[in-house]
Specification:
Helix content is 97%, strand content 0%. The chain is an all-alpha fold and 143 residues long. α2 (105-120) crosses α3 (122-142). Residues 1-24 are annotated as: Disordered.
């Protein structure tokens, strides 16, 4: 019976050693596979970083081109607006001159007095004009 017990203990010990060896080999294999996976992940991350850099550079270039075009368009529009404003100011001056020429003398004198007062007190004139505009706006809103 001792012989069977010794054999069983030897078998159990051998199995334990085999399991330990297999566990060591599995650990080694797992380490190798993890190392390879880490290397692959690093390579993929480097490629993704390079692509992101290229895309960011292209996007920056496009944004610069678009900003330049927008600036050019804004300059053109500002120039056109200035030209139109000058034309309209000239036409307004002409209309004012025609209106002044067709006014009776009493109205011309009153208008000259108002203009003189406005030049002497521009803030008062601006306040009165703003009040008239607000009053007119309120009247229009009620309709």
């Amino acid at each position: 019976m001792a012989d069977i017990t010794d054999r069983a203990q030897n078998a159990v010990t051998g199995a334990k050693n085999d399991v330990g060896d297999l566990a060591g080999k599995a650990g080694d294999k797992a380490g190798v596979l993890a190392s390879k996976a880490g290397d692959k992940a690093g390579d993929l991350a480097a490629k993704a970083s390079d692509k992101a850099g290229e895309l960011a550079s292209k996007a920056g270039d496009k944004a610069g081109v678009l900003a330049s075009k927008a600036g050019d368009k804004a300059g053109d529009l500002a120039e056109m607006a200035g030209t139109k404003a000058t034309e309209l100011a000239g036409k307004a001056g002409e209309l004012a001159d025609k209106a002044r020429a067709n006014m009776p003398d009493e109205v011309k004198d009153a208008a000259d007095k108002v203009v003189t007062q406005a030049k002497n007190r521009p803030w008062v004139t601006a306040a009165i004009a703003a009040g008239v505009l607000l009053f007119w706006r309120m009247l229009r809103r009620k309709k």
